[in-house]
Amino acid sequence: MKINILQDIMSANDRIAAKNQQLLEENQVIAINIMSSPGAGKTTLLLETLRRLKSKFKMAVIEADIASTVDAERIIEEGVPATQINTGGECHIDANMLSQALSQVNLKGLDLLFIENVGNLVCPAEFRLGVTKSIMLLSVPEGHDKPYKYPLMFTTTDAILVSKMDYLPLSDFDMPLFKQVVSGMNPKARIIPISAKTGQGMPDWIDWLESLLEKKYK
Fold first, then answer.
1. Which of 67, 86, 104, 117 could form a cystine bridge with 124, CB 3.0-4.6 A?
2. Rounded to an integer, what distance in angstroms lies between the CA atom of residue 132 and that of residue 78?
3. Which CATH number is 9's domain given?
4. Residue 138, Cβ neighbours under 10 Å: how many?
5. Structural domain of 162
């Protein structure tokens, strides 16, 4: 019985995700779902990304947290509109939550929509949202063994950003081993070592985003 209930939940979620995808495609919006554990640097990366792109593209952000509006307020201070989702205890957002948030976003003329998911390495990967691409951040302090422990997250993302690379000299993070393991699990995923603090890898990340926008305008 529990299995049937779970199947019903996921089936309903996927139907709404398909509607979200259709809405975004009709408005030619590139939507990026950003996932990571808490403290991996999602908001810091997002703020630096907005600073580098806001003069070129029209962007908006959907911020998801269990509680508070702290991160959304920081986004708005950068001059980019932000819509808040408070999950009230849920460790992820689902397609219905995103659908409700999309109804509050002005999609007309929008180029990029970033969705900052709730910090968690398990639940967010289980729910389709209907976005264009999904990425995840894994910070150097978390260790290179996380693909073994949270395989779904690493196999369902389009790009993996290894964040806080400025900590690498202080850690035992094995980058060659990490790349080898992830490439075996998800050979299509782009791996980008990055540090929003020092700027390392930011051009590669920006290039990846702009390549998506180039396809939009072809």
1. 117
2. 24
3. 3.40.50.300
4. 27
5. 2-217
